[in-house]
Structure formats: structure tokens, C-alpha cells
Amino acid sequence: MTVQSIRLFGDPVLRTPADPVVDFDKELRTLVKDLTDSMLEEGGAGLAAPQIGVGLRVFSFDVDDVVGHIINPELSFPDDEEQDGPEGCLSIPGIYIDTKRRQNVVAAGFNEHGDPIQIVGTGLMARCVQHETDHLDGVLFLDRLDAASRKDAMKQIRAADWYDAGKPPTIKESPHGRGLFGLGR
Q1: Residue 105 lies in a domain
Q2: CA 20 to 30 Å from 85, out of 23, 44, 119, 149?
Q3: Is 53 left (phi over 0), alpha (psi -120 to 50) or beta?
Q4: Tell me: the pLDDT tens digits for 149-165?
Q5: Is 72:110 a contact under the CB 8 Å cutoff?
Q6: Closest to 107 measured CA to CA, from 163, 137, 160, 69
Q7: Is the model more confident about 170 or about 61?
Q8: For the whole prediction, is pTM greater than 0.70?
């Protein structure tokens, strides 16, 4: 087991868009294993490569007893249905805020060997796929909150034991805009 440290809110790697994977090699397979081991150890539903300091478009997931990963995901939404519920992040520990997301998502990408794969997600899986893909774009779930919820989240973060007041927090606008229901894409 190769468990990596999780980067916390304030670390610039979390705000930097990740690069597409171009080499499907042993190093990539090691990264996928490290992501999966680290996610399982921390009890998360997903973990993106930037969260362990690697700027590549890869994430792992563990939702409803389905453990997997996807590389270079591209999302599409089969309908306009939305969900609103608590969302948290391993990089922002202990903070859970209701966040709007699409209810259904289709993610097309690749596995660790470069074979095409597709994830069709509803509910929690859809939330996870959208959350982790946001990480690959340098976007945090805080960026998806309305002003009042964001203010509440920032107050909770500043009060958290893990927060480093020496690193001023930043909020980044989603590169996909707020779009339908404020969800982007």
C-alpha cells in the first residue's frame, strides 16, 4: 500500500488545471494505485491526482462498492435534472456544505492501460465524478456555492485546526461558467 499525503486547501496545486495524460505507462499505473490506496485509507468517495500533488487528469473513486478510476475524463449530461445535498472534500477536511450538481452524468475517458471507458453516474456517483473532474480543472466545490454558503464555508475553514492562516484562501471562478442551475457545462 502506498498512501500519499493529501494536499489541503490553500495549496496552489489545487488551483492549477491538470495536464492531460499522454503516456499510459508503469508510472501512470503506480499513480492510479497510489490514488486508490490513499482514497481508501482516508475513506473518501474520490481522489484526484492534484490532491496528492500530481498535475495530471486522473482520479479514483469508491462509490456504492464500485472502486475504479478514470483518466482524461470528458463529461456530458443526459438531462437537466439537478441534485442538492451535502458535499465535502478530503482537501477541505470536516467541512460539508449543500452543493448543487447535476443528477446524471456520463464520463468518457480511459483506464490505466489506455483503453476507452465510460462511467454512467446518478446521484452520489454523478456528484463524485463532477467533483473530481472539477479538481482536474483547478476548481473546488467551494467555487460552486452561492455567496452566503461560501461565506459560511470560509468561516468554518478559518476555524478548522488544519487551516494555515498564513496562506490566504482564494476562490476561483469555474472555467465552465455557472451555466444551467449554476452548475457549469
Answers
A1: yes
A2: 119
A3: left
A4: 999 999 999 999 999 87
A5: yes
A6: 69
A7: 61
A8: yes
Number of domains into which the chain is organized: 1
Rounded Cα distance, 53 and 173, in Å? 21
Q: Do 69 and 136 contact (CB within 8 A), yes or no?
A: no
What domain range includes position 160? 12-182
Q: How far apart are CA 69 and CA 110, in angstroms?
A: 9
The answer to whether the annotation marks 113 as part of a ligand binding site is no
Q: What is the pLDDT of residues 90-118, one digit of tens each?
A: 999 999 999 999 999 999 999 999 999 99
C-beta atoms surrounding 1 within 10 Å: 9
What is the residue type of 81? E
CA dist., res. 100 & res. 127, Å (int): 9
Q: Is residue 132 flagged as an active site residue?
A: yes
Is 69 annotated in a binding site? The answer is no
Site of grid cell 499513480: 31
Q: Which residue out of 74, 81, 87, 132 is catalytically annotated?
A: 132
Q: What is the CATH number of the domain that holds 153?
A: 3.90.45.10
Q: Is 89 marked as a binding-site residue?
A: yes
Nearest CA-CA partner of 164 in 7, 1, 54, 4: 7
